[in-house]
Write a structure and sequence with these properties.
alpha+beta, 7-stranded antiparallel sheet, 5-stranded antiparallel sheet, disordered N terminus
Length: 451
């Protein structure tokens, strides 16, 4: 009886176990299917499938595009900036554009300080300059006939004048930093056009004028004024375009064979109305009280304050004015920190803009100085020129896109090769061989006064 009850119980329990087993198998199969084909999680009300993920991708893509665009724009900023500034002047006016430029310069200056603090920077603008191959024909040697015992007086026998011209004397430089960089303040003739071991036509050095910005370097080119002719060219638009006076904007082809150096001119015509006379034209009227450089038909160069040191002379070939003197009579001008009534046509104080600046000057001996550098105010540019030996100096144009000094190397086929004086200059030196909208200077070899 008990056995029958036990069997009966087993028979009764068997279907239940079978059913449980079947259910377990079914659950397992269902789990495997769920793993293979997962069911989407319940979505929040109002949310579309995948929208959040798509937006993340879109934002990331836009960020990448923005970074790449900003990088591309920064790499081309010196090409874009002039057109952008001219466009803004027509939209928001000269005053607001100048204020915006001042803000941009301030941001750039802070960025340069941070970069120098953590990464350092190049302090010698000639560190990376490559030597240029040039063809310099030797001039025939000068013959001197001296007859011993010819009856000449002793004082007239053999003089420096009889042997030839004296070599150009390098001005004494002064370092502003207690410890200079290698080559700073030292005149070098390496790699400059038409220099020969026997005679020095040009020399170069650099000066760092700002202790708060050790990376601000001014490259200075010294040229023997007895052996060159300085020429000025009005641009096709500046400085007289707004008055309907347009210049040729080109260097005549016949001057290529003796071309040495070319460098940028001064401010645009409306930006101060600084005078210029050249190419037989008056681009802008000459005015008293302004820094002025003039060249006479015989090659003599004068620089000073117009109306105080000199006025127009019939012997003058060309003159250019720009703002006030940076160096006046061998001293840094006390006016280099004055407001913008002195330095421009708007109320924004552009003398304090920290940016690329350029200048031209003369030494006490009358030799020519051509200078340019980065991260400068008007005052630090003046200090650099003074430290390089300038007796008189005047600022030319400012801002990287407008500043270039080109050196021209004669080649065996009669052509010239153009190279920048400093690699860090933005414009190409070859632009002086085309047609320019803005005025500029250039030097040709002319030894008619080299005695």
């Amino acid at each position: 009886m008990l056995r029958r009850i036990g069997l009966r119980r087993a028979e009764l329990l068997q279907p239940v176990a079978a059913e449980a087993h079947a259910t377990a198998i079914q659950a397992t199969s269902s789990d495997l299917e769920d793993l293979a084909h997962p069911t989407p999680a319940p979505e929040e009300p109002g949310a579309s499938p995948g929208r959040r993920f798509t937006w993340k991708r879109a934002i990331l893509a836009l960020a990448i595009i923005a970074v790449l665009g900003a990088g591309a724009a920064f790499s081309q900023k010196d090409k874009i900036a002039p057109e952008a500034a001219d466009f803004l002047r027509g939209v928001i006016g000269d005053e607001n554009t100048a204020r915006l430029e001042g803000w941009v310069f301030e941001v750039e200056d802070r960025a340069h300080k941070v970069k120098y603090r953590f990464l350092g920077g190049e302090e010698n603008p000639f560190d990376t300059k490559e030597l240029q191959v040039q063809f310099v024909p030797h001039a025939p040697a000068k013959e001197i006939v001296y007859l011993a015992g010819s009856g000449r007086e002793a004082g007239q026998a053999l003089t420096a004048e009889a042997l030839g011209p004296l070599r150009m004397q390098f001005p004494v430089t002064q370092l502003i930093f207690a410890e200079g960089q290698p080559g700073e303040g030292e005149w070098s003739t390496t790699g400059l056009p038409r220099n020969t071991p026997a005679e020095t036509l040009m020399a170069k050095t650099f000066i760092r004028p700002d202790k708060s910005r050790p990376y601000a370097s001014v490259g200075v080119l010294l040229v023997d004024q007895r052996r060159v002719q300085l020429k000025m060219v009005g641009g096709t638009l500046e400085p007289g375009g707004d008055r309907g006076v347009r210049g040729p904007g080109t260097i005549p082809k016949e001057d290529y064979k003796s071309l040495l150096v070319a460098f940028n001119g001064g401010f645009k015509g409306p930006h101060g109305s600084y005078g210029m006379v050249a190419n037989g034209k008056e681009y802008m009227r000459m005015r008293n009280g302004l820094a002025t450089i003039c060249v006479a038909k015989d090659g003599r160069i004068k620089m000073g304050e117009y109306g105080r040191d000199f006025t127009w002379e019939e012997s003058f070939e060309a003159c250019r004015q720009n703002v006030i003197l940076l160096v006046d009579g061998g001293q840094v001008s006390k006016r280099t920190t004055e407001g913008n009534d002195t330095w421009g046509y708007v109320n924004v104080n552009s003398s304090e803009f920290i940016t690329w600046r350029s200048a031209v000057g003369i030494t006490k001996d009358g030799n020519l100085l051509i200078a340019a550098g980065n991260s400068l105010s008007a005052d630090t540019l003046a200090k650099a020129l003074h430290a390089a030996g300038a007796y008189m100096a005047m600022q030319l144009d400012i801002n990287g896109p407008y500043i270039c000094t080109g050196l021209f190397y004669p080649q065996p086929d009669g052509s010239v090769k153009a190279e920048k004086f400093m690699d860090s200059m933005s414009p190409s030196a070859s632009n002086f061989l085309g047609t320019r909208e803005r005025d500029f200077f250039y030097l040709t070899l002319d030894e008619s006064r080299y005695r």
